[in-house]
Write a structure and sequence with these properties.
single chain, globular, binds zinc ion, 8% strand
């Protein structure tokens, strides 16, 4: 398992087998000799997902029903959407699209998300456990920073961000800022700069 964790951290290839188990890519060329990951960090887990696929230009949505992964159980979850759908990637990453990809491809990403979730939970979800791999969180300040106006909205509606949740995120961002809640500093200034540009354009 340590090798797979390495692969996830370094965005390497992870093989998703039938049934949803993850495997190390036999063709992997990463040097794993000094893998820092404890091999007993993640054992074997089973999940039951509810998956919704849509005929229109939306990506599928997946919910973990067993175990239940929700905002109520994990208020600090970095990668759950507002309705508790898991978010295996931002639509702006352009890794999945109807016509090019299938629901099975989406489930590959979902399996990898579940592995990352296991690590996050076992490394202390309630005190900011570790989310492995490169991914921005779904805090509104982060979304404003990483999702372009014309990208698909992260909610999966298939609409452009500017025509869907962007205004709502901007007001949420302003409310957070005005009420003095902590917003991660490194995105705060960038998000402010984007809003300033938008105001003047
Ligand atoms: Zn939206």
């Amino acid at each position: 398992m340590g090798f797979i964790l390495d692969d996830l951290v370094l965005s390497g290839v992870v093989i998703v087998r039938t049934g949803g188990t993850l495997g190390h890519d036999p063709g992997c060329r990463l040097g794993h000799a000094d893998s820092p990951y404890e091999t007993d960090l993640v054992g074997s887990f089973a999940f039951r997902l509810q998956v919704l696929a849509f005929a229109c230009n939306r990506h599928p949505c997946a919910y973990s029903v067993s175990p239940r992964i929700s905002r109520i159980r994990f208020p600090l979850h970095p990668h759950l959407l507002a309705d508790d759908a898991i978010c295996p990637y931002l639509p702006s990453d352009d890794v999945w699209r109807w016509g090019r990809n299938t629901v099975a491809d989406f489930l590959d990403f979902a399996s990898i998300w579940l592995a990352k979730h296991c690590v996050w939970e076992s490394t202390g979800a309630c005190n900011g456990g570790r989310w492995i791999g490169v991914a921005a969180s779904h805090a509104v300040a982060d979304l404003l920073h990483v999702v372009g106006r014309n990208d698909q909205c992260p909610c999966g509606s298939g609409r452009k961000y500017k025509r869907c949740h962007r205004e709502q995120h901007i007001s949420a961002f302003r409310n957070q800022r005005d009420s003095g809640q902590e917003v991660r500093g490194r995105y705060m200034n960038q998000a402010k700069a984007r809003m300033a540009l938008r105001g003047s354009g």
